[in-house]
Design brief:
66% of the residues lie in helices and 0% in strands. The chain is mainly α. The protein has a single domain, classed as Orthogonal Bundle (Hypothetical protein af1432), CATH 1.10.3210. The chain is globular, with a radius of gyration of 19 Å. The N and C termini lie far apart (48 Å). The mean pLDDT is 88.
């Protein structure tokens, strides 16, 4: 019986992939991302070269400076130009920010009265900046990857709204009636979770495998492959804190289930320490939320 259930689940996921692969209007890799990647991969590229390219997109410049100057980012000096941001943050971190913000921009047109775009954006950016801050505070070196994975962790939700509208409305009704929904509940309705759908799309864009892995397992980081457990746990913790502190949370995370294995993975010691850590971030989270603009 269990084998039959597993086979059915795989068949359902295959159907979801087939439907997505047949959609020709899915956002493609933005031009700016490919050009920034090309420049950064060239050892002869200077900060001025990169700044000139990004500077052609003033909307992107504004967003990068907003991120760099946000309370959770923790940069002590005000960052007022894209060239200074590149010098302070470094090429790879700028690349991660451009990738993440470009991906989000690709979905700005996916909105409607039943999709809370402002709340979704605030939650995504809050999780991203919180993941970066937690990574830095824990001495984890890949803060840029934590930001990117945090910003993209719920990417599957607008995809569900745009391409699985009936199923999206069913999920919204369950959340409204029962206060929340589990990933198992999502899978029963759609055939796949928002985590899986986001993971699929990120793979289509050929983004780094660790980002894809974190998006897939951001609700269950201890199930990640060994090399991705820490990054997935950091994003999971950032996501959890938005719910626990009720600051920048999103209603699909109502009744958030903490994967307690992250206490050992991140060497936090105990749940009491984690609770204290959460409270220590409250003022920063509240200040961060005040700065977020769509």
């Amino acid at each position: 019986m269990e084998n039959q259930s597993t086979l059915q689940a795989e068949k359902n996921k295959a159907n979801v992939i087939y439907k997505l692969s047949a959609v020709h209007s899915l956002p493609t890799m933005p031009f700016l991302v490919s050009e920034v990647t090309r420049l950064i991969d060239n050892p002869m590229t200077s900060a001025a070269n990169l700044g000139r390219l990004i500077g052609k997109d003033q909307g992107m410049v504004t967003k990068i400076l907003s991120v760099a100057n946000s309370p959770l980012y923790g940069i002590p000096r005000r960052v007022s130009t894209i060239d200074f941001a590149i010098v302070i943050l470094g090429f790879n971190h700028i690349k991660n920010i451009v990738i993440a913000l470009s991906m989000m921009n690709a979905f700005k047109n996916i909105s409607g009265k039943d999709f809370r775009l402002e709340k979704y954006w605030a939650h995504s950016l809050m999780t991203a900046t919180a993941a970066k801050r937690i990574a830095d505070d824990l001495g984890y070196q890949l803060g840029g990857e934590a930001f990117t994975a945090g910003l993209l962790h719920d990417l599957g939700i607008p995809i569900i709204y745009r391409y699985f509208r009936k199923e999206y409305m069913q999920i919204e009704k369950i959340i409204s009636d029962l206060g929340g929904i589990t990933e198992e509940g999502e899978e029963n309705i759609i055939g796949a979770t928002h985590s899986f759908i986001g993971h699929y799309l990120i793979n289509q864009w050929n983004l780094p495998s660790e980002i894809s892995s974190v998006v897939l397992q951001h609700h269950n980081p201890s199930a990640s492959i060994q090399n991705d457990k820490v990054l997935a746990s950091i994003v999971h913790l950032a996501d959890y804190l938005t719910w626990k502190l009720d600051v920048g949370n999103f209603h699909w995370d109502n009744n958030f289930l903490l994967d307690s294995n992250i206490i050992d993975i991140l060497k936090l010691g105990s749940i009491e320490y984690l609770d204290g850590l959460a409270e220590s971030y409250r003022e920063l989270f509240e200040a961060q939320l005040d700065t977020i603009k769509l």
